[in-house]
Amino acid sequence: MTKKKKFKENFLRNIPLLLMALPGIVYIFVLRYIPIYGIIIAFKDFRIHKNGFLYSLMTSKWVGFKNFEFLFKTQDAKIIFRNTIGYSLLFLFLGMIFQIIVALLLLEMTNRRTVKVYQTLIIFPHFLSMVIVAFFVYVFLAPNEGVINNMLMAMGFQKIEWYMEPKYWPYILTIVTLWKGTGYGSIMYLATITGFDQELYEAAVIDGATKWQQTTNITLPLLKPIISIMLILGLSNVLGADFGLFYQVPRNIPMLNPATNVIPTFVYRALMNMGNIVMPAAAGLLQSVAGFILIIVANTVVRMINPENSLF
Amino acid sequence: MSLYKLDNKLLDTVALPRRRRRKNDGLTIKPLTNVIFNILVGAFAISAIIPFLMVVSISFTEESAISKYGYRLFHTDFSLKAYEYVFSASDQIYRSFFVSVVVTVLGTILCLFMTSSYAYPLYRRTFPFKKFLSLYNFFTMMFSGGLVPTYLVMTQLLHLKNTIWALIIGGALNSFWVFIMRTFYSTTIPESLIDSAMIDGCTEFKIYYKIVLPISLPALATLGLFTAVGYWNSWFEALLYIEKAELVPLQYMLMQIERNIQYLIDNAHTLDTQQLEYMRANLPAQSVRNAITVIVVLPIALSYPFFQKYFIRGITIGAVKG
């Protein structure tokens, strides 16, 4: 039987299942694959034509890497790449350390009921939108009514104009990220740890291992697979950033840009405020391609060291 | 790929290991260590909800007291004025609430339908296209067109600007959850069940509707809860696609208020006194902004204790290869 015939027969026999998948197939094609095709905008002098998007996409002139040249000539380029990579790595490693520490603390505490309460409370921030989180931050940092400035004044210090000084923002953004994400991540690690074989620990105790030795010699090594997966995913997103965190929390204040402008906020502002299509498209393409390459490379490296720990 | 190896975490909550607790058994930490751990985690747990409690407290406070003492956790001048104002000053809060509810309900239903119906054929062993359709979906998790092409597709190709669908369509299928659901099906529904239903003359649609859907309700509940929270919390789509006041969801409404206030602060020196006075008079008071924030968070805060189990379940799904 030829391939074509076989395909036809398979197709006809599976029409009901194909029909079930059809909404998804169409959806993914229109909302994921057409935009992926649209990345060629980055290499074109894209102009919107009245015949529609696809027509404009195909008829716009190719300009090679010109858009990337423009991008790297802007004074923002250095800042946004530095900020994006810096924050990504900082949040990835610091976040992971905090999450694992909280997971271990939750695991070892002997009062089970309160641990349940802790679990419930610490994941709450994860389910709040960045609009809300930004509002909370403002309650603390507002120049006149803010909680922190009130406390500073009560203790006899000068108040600080948090929303005018970029130098504070790396710390503020880090604290917000840890506040929002640590609970969520720690529950994830905790769920992994609770799946470990308890006999390992009992055997270690018989050998005279202390609690600390059990943690460093059993728990942490067993966490390696999930840690490496988190690292692969995190590294692949090193040119990505949470738009909400960098746009909402600093209240879109231009003065703070040196510390808060990242690729996604740059892309958004260039597109919506300046009406520039090609330059943010070039920045977005770099982000997507770098992410794709990094996830493949990171995964290959991990697979070479230990195939069990790789993502795919 | 480990997505195939995902454990079936959908039915678990985090059960801590049962250990026989004896003093100095080597498995339990010392009482003093326990106290220290409790203080550390307890402080973090309190910090997780303090901001919300503070906003609740401010929203019930007399405006003059806020200006005098600033934001704090405990205020003495109790007042309901902020809420009276929010619910009577304009229709916008009702309209936005309505938009948010519609988007959340429609979006969640659509996402559950699309995600589960795409995942189901991928689980069927006999389906010859399952490899291709898995990859078709998986690739979009690794590589995306990014904001600019997506924005152009939404506005220039689909013409969804200033429609309610612009708020819904972006999240109508969750690629990651497709794999989670597929794994759920393959770990909870034996193929033999499907086969015997086939022999009894059930059609594929009937099998899906009568057998698969009922069995997968717990998984759909978790997915549905997370999707609903996601839609309720979404504002980015509104920022990109919505200009009409009648389509502004709650999150975006709060965002616009804060943006106007920040605009006023940033441009105070360039506006003349008349303009300033006009803008000040039209901007909501401190307590009102806090009251709006409470209203925006309330549905999540209220559902939280009831669905806590599902919230935790959804998180542990991320715990791959446990």
How would you describe this structure in keywords?
heterodimer; A: mainly alpha; MetI-like fold; 2 domains; two-stranded antiparallel ribbon; globular; B: 322 residues; mainly alpha
Write the layout of secondary structure elements.
The complex is a heterodimer of chains A (312) and B (322).
Chain A: H1 3-13, H2 15-37, E1 44-45, H3 53-59, E2 61-62, H4 66-73, H5 76-108, H6 112-122, H7 130-141, H8 147-154, H9 169-193, H10 198-206, H11 211-236, H12 243-247, H13 257-260, H14 263-272, H15 278-305
Antiparallel strand pairs in A: 1-2
Helix pairs in contact in A: 4-15, 5-9, 5-11, 11-15, 14-15
Chain B: H1 2-5, H2 31-59, H3 63-69, H4 81-89, H5 92-123, H6 130-142, H7 147-157, H8 165-168, H9 175-188, H10 191-199, H11 204-215, H12 217-233, H13 236-241, H14 250-266, H15 273-282, H16 286-316
Helix pairs in contact in B: 2-16, 4-16, 5-9, 5-12, 6-9, 12-16, 14-16
What do you see in this structure?
The complex is a heterodimer of chains A (312) and B (322). Chain A has 312 residues and is an all-alpha fold. Chain A has helices at residues 3-13, 15-37, 53-59, 66-73, 76-108, 112-122, 130-141, 147-154, 169-193, 198-206, 211-236, 243-247, 257-260, 263-272, 278-305; strands spanning 44-45, 61-62. In chain A, helix 4 crosses helix 15 (278-305), helix 5 (76-108) runs antiparallel to helix 11 (211-236) and helix 11 (211-236) packs antiparallel against helix 15 (278-305). The longest helix of chain A is centred in the first third of the chain and has 33 residues, at 76-108. With 322 residues, chain B is mainly alpha-helical. In chain B, helix 5 (92-123) crosses helix 9 and helix 12 (217-233) runs antiparallel to helix 16 (286-316). The two termini of chain B are 15 Å apart. At the A-B interface, helix 2, helix 3, helix 5, helix 6 and helix 7 of A face helix 2, helix 3, helix 5, helix 6 and helix 7 of B.
Task: State the CATH superfamily name of chain B.
Answer: MetI-like
Poorly predicted residue ranges of chain B = 1-13
Main beta sheet strand tally, sense and closure of chain A: 2 strands, antiparallel
Tally of DSSP β-strands of chain A: 2
Number of strands of chain B: 0
Strand adjacency order, main sheet of chain A: 1-2
What is the CATH class of the largest domain in chain A? Answer: Mainly Alpha
Distance between the termini of chain A: 33 Å
- The H-level CATH homologous superfamily of the largest domain in chain A, spelled out, is MetI-like
- Integer average pLDDT of chain A: 92
Low-confidence stretches of chain A: none
Give helix % range of chain A: over 70%
The gross shape of chain A turns out to be globular
Largest interface: A-B, 118 and 117 residues
What Rg of chain B, in angstroms, do the CA atoms define? Answer: 25 Å
CATH topology title of chain B: MetI-like fold
